[in-house]
Each structure stands twice: as structure tokens, then as C-alpha cells.
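[agent] plan:
  1. take the single chain provided in the ticket
  2. run structure prediction with default settings
  3. attach C-alpha cells to the ticket
  4. add a short note for the reviewer (M.T.)
[agent] executing step 1
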Amino acid sequence: MRKDKDRVRIGDVIQLSGETDIKLLWGQFLDDFYHAPADERYALIKDEPPYSEGLEEKWLFILAAAAHALANQYGLDVPEWSLGKKYVSEKALYAFDSHIKAHQEYLEETSLPEFKERNLMLGDNILSRC
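[agent] step 2 finished; step 3 output follows
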């Protein structure tokens, strides 16, 4: 069993991505957030992730949207950093880099508001875990 201090924070997704697949870190962050005691969840999203050379910029947008959405869903303060304009994509980014119009429309309709306002059309299950 993981110790509390071993929880993956939102910034860890970036910091550890050179050592571990970023998608695995993303999943671990979500698992840790959902399983953390209510009074410890804010600590997992409060700190701004560091910029990292070579990182796909979309991950910074995704993490900001996630911090914003999770805060809203769990009644937490929205971290100020997550509201920065630098976390808004200039162009729409679609899940799976879809170019199929019907799929894009579906993603636009179902994406969470905190993701849509950052031009991230990733669908309604971006924060889901199996």
C-alpha cells in the first residue's frame, strides 16, 4: 500500500514524466486524488506544474483543466494557477487527434466545461478511471 506522502500530485505528472510514461502518471494522479481523504485532495492540485523542455504543451493545458474541474466537482478552491491564460490552447485539440467531423462534434458536446474553455475537446470521461 502506498503511503500518503507517496501520492502523485498534479505537478509530479510533469516532473516524473522523464522517468515514467506520462499517461501512467496521469492515471496514478487521478487514482491518488480520488482515493485521498477529502481534507487532503486540495494539496494534490494546488501547486502549478513546472514547465519541462520537450513536454507536449497539451499536457499543461490538460493538467490546468483537470485541477479546475476536480476543484469544482469536489467543492475545493480552484487553484489560481489553473486559471492562467497560458493554459489555453490556441487551437482546438481533439481526443485521438480526430479529424472526423462527427467525432469532433461529439467531443465538443460532451467535453467538460473546464476543458472546453481551454479548447480541449477530450470528451466527458477524461477524468474517469476504470
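[agent] step 4 note for reviewer: The beta strands are 93-94, 120-121.
[agent] ticket updated
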